[in-house]
Design brief:
mainly alpha; two-stranded antiparallel ribbon; 2 strands
Length: 155
């Protein structure tokens, strides 16, 4: 797994993430400016975007945008995770080690949809042995060891 994390560093995924989310935020602000008056009228409000009475309309717009942007955010995150996996496989040349670590991660994160607590996010309370928020935005954990096994067959 160290090779995977080094892959994030070497491939500059932090900067890619900052750029991606900055562009996404600019699009959100632009859309909010353009769409706010229409949505405010639809909700029967005469409030301007800088008026506190318009906050519920603004939150509604943000919610709609978040749902619309989810496929792009998930694709971006999964692409970075796949790139980091491939970097690990290419530089470490230990596909069995990566596959083993990914299987352990899969067992830890409840990959089976029938056993999963939620498809989007999970809250585990520290009193129940959990550590807080867990977000399932990474590539399907079941397919990641398969990719490393396929790489082992190629090498």
């Amino acid at each position: 797994m160290t090779g995977h994390e080094i892959g994030h560093y070497v491939l500059k995924h932090t900067w890619s993430g900052i750029l991606f989310f900055a562009v996404l935020a600019m699009v959100l602000f632009w859309l909010a400016e353009k769409l706010y008056p229409r949505f405010a009228r639809a909700f029967g409000s005469d409030a301007k975007i800088d008026d506190p009475r318009g906050v519920p309309v603004l939150f509604f717009l943000i919610s709609v945008f978040a749902v619309a942007a989810s496929p792009f955010i998930n694709t971006f995150g999964r692409t970075l995770e796949t790139q980091a996996d491939m970097y690990s496989l290419e530089t470490e040349n230990r596909p069995d080690a990566l596959a083993s670590a990914l299987v352990k991660t899969a067992e830890y994160r409840y990959p089976d949809p029938m056993r999963s607590r939620s498809s989007c996010s999970t809250i585990t309370l520290p009193s129940n042995g959990g550590s807080g928020w867990q977000w399932n935005g990474r590539p399907r954990i079941r397919t990641r060891p398969l990719r490393s096994d396929q790489a082992a067959e190629v090498t």
